[in-house]
Amino acid sequence: MPLKRPSSSAPGGLRSAVKRKNTSEKKAQSNSSLPLSTRAAGAGGSSSTMMKIFTDEAQGLRVDPLVVLFLAVGFIFSVIILHVFAKITGKFT
Amino acid sequence: MCQSPMTRTHRGIRPRLLTLVRLLDLIKFFLPILPEVELPDEKISFDERIIFTVGSGIIFLFGQLPLFGLVSGAEYKVVDPFFSVRSIFAMEKASLLELGLLPLITAGFLWQLAAGLKLIKVNFNLRQDRELFQSGQKLTALFLSIVYSAGLIYSGYYDNVIQKYDPLNGDSAPLGTYVLLFLQINAWSFILTLLVDVFDKGYAFGSGILCFLTLQTATTLVRDLVGLEVTPLLNSNRVESYGALINLVRNFSIFNLSQLNSSIVNAFTRLQLPNLNQFYISLLTILAIIGLQNYRIELPIRSTKVRGMNNVYPIRLLYTGALPVLFAYTVIVNFQIFGFFLVTILNKFGIAPVLIDSLLGKFNAEITTNNLVLKSGILYYFSNSTSLLQSLLSPIKTVVYSVSVVLLSVWFANKWSYISGSSPRDISKQFKEQGISITGKRDISITKELSRVIPVAAVSGGFALAVLAVGGEFLGGLGKGISTIIGVSSAFGILEEFMIEYQQTGGNSQFSSAFGGQ
């Protein structure tokens, strides 16, 4: 079967120069643009529906998650104890 | 002619401007003292993730403990300027959760939008920049929490509920109690930041912020309906139950049918405690979101490697979830809070009281509810109405408020669909990596095809949710409708993550053997 070429213009020339320019511009743009978020860079963080503050990295003073939970429970208990003491001392004075 | 593309591309690469100090570099000084949850060494098992989620959730709910140093029942006596937005950010009156998640959410949106809109220079390809970026959010959250709590204490928010202190009696300012309150609120904010960190580092399901908001919404919805505790009404000798339905049932008496009408009306309209009106708005919102969640466009995709592998790629209407609404209210609430601080501080110094009243805003305390309601000024136009009657009586305010919420969320939805890492370009990159193409389209035009669908879906989804939120407020939802929107759509996201994890690794877990039914 003979191949049909739909384009009427000659190969090369003005039109393909414009096309080449456009694609090269686009390529340059996409190569030079940096990711706009941590997830776009592939490191976790906020997704389209989930608001996350922290990413998949840790630096600085590292703590175990269990330490955090115990810290929270300890704080809660200290506030409860303060309340209890206030109630007890309030009864006697 | 041939020269022009060359010059164009050269001009595209601009010389980097030397900036002396980046905002990010300032955070380096705080890095060694900022605690951060370490990453899991090995993959967290399904059971462990459930335990972490439930455990942190329960600890979060303990934040509703009343602050030490206040009189008992302070939550009913505090004169409250933020009554209508509390439920959105889990801000519980006169408790450790006084600020709720507001500092965290504000800090997160500030940094992520600033980076996404290229207002600050962050190179997310560098590991160090990403670490500085997350520490920056944490620091900002702590800083905001300090600012909010100091502002609240300074503006005299707690003055009429502090133990053994009567401002009218001429007592000296209770500095010790102020310091105690300040420390309690900020310590809890700090612990909350770490708890959210535990979630976000992958120990639990979903994102910390949204999971906590969901939990708070769910528990308050139940408590608002069937809360059993009886509370004395302000400036009256009557008591009422906390739960709207319980109160209605308790007031119902067969011998006194003439009172039935008034007690039903009261159950729907009372403002000092949760009412049935808010409950029905929440219920309708839940149904509407479940409906909206199902709308999606399915793009036919095919594998470029294997012949005959066809599938669909769904793009949801709620492409950005409830984040647009959350963002719109973050802006509005921050505006309200800083406005409140400004008004009270200016009033304290007595600078041009008439001008402040008419320009900024005038707060009036209502006798029956102890709510500080705005009466005039700019702040007034960005506050919600307490009932349907109020919204009808002040049409300009209703329109300004509604339009600003809708515009903010639509703007955010559009921006977020490009910067959140699921933009058309990111997805077409994923497609290429996985050898997927849209049926009937060439590889190059995938981005074009996706960017015809994704921003439109995001914007219309954001618009639909904003209209739902504003509609609930118009009917007098007082923030309950909005918190339901955020809670339910976050719950869907968390559930999705849970189910994916369950299908992948949940087969041999304790959870599935306990609840699997086999």
Automatic annotation (TrEMBL), chain A:
Main location: endoplasmic reticulum
Record field: transmembrane: 66-86
General function of this protein: Necessary for protein translocation in the endoplasmic reticulum.
Keywords: Endoplasmic reticulum, Membrane, Protein transport, Translocation, Transmembrane, Transmembrane helix, Transport
Membrane topology classification: Single-pass membrane protein
Region called Disordered, residue ranges: 1-47
Stretches with biased composition (Polar residues): 1-10
Pfam families: Sec61_beta
Record-given protein name: Protein transport protein Sec61 subunit beta
Biological process terms in GO annotation: intracellular protein transport
Species of origin: Suhomyces tanzawaensis NRRL Y-17324
Location in or out of the cell: Endoplasmic reticulum membrane
One GO CC annotation: Sec61 translocon complex
Family note: Belongs to the SEC61-beta family.
Automatic annotation (TrEMBL), chain B:
GO molecular function: signal sequence binding
PANTHER family: SECY/SEC61-ALPHA FAMILY MEMBER
Segments forming domain Translocon Sec61/SecY plug: 58-93
Protein name: SecY protein
Pfam name, any one: Plug_translocon
GO biological process: protein transport; SRP-dependent cotranslational protein targeting to membrane
Transmembrane segments: 50-74, 94-120, 141-158, 178-196, 203-222, 279-297, 317-346, 392-413, 450-471
Keyword field contains Amino-acid biosynthesis: no
Recorded superkingdom: Eukaryota
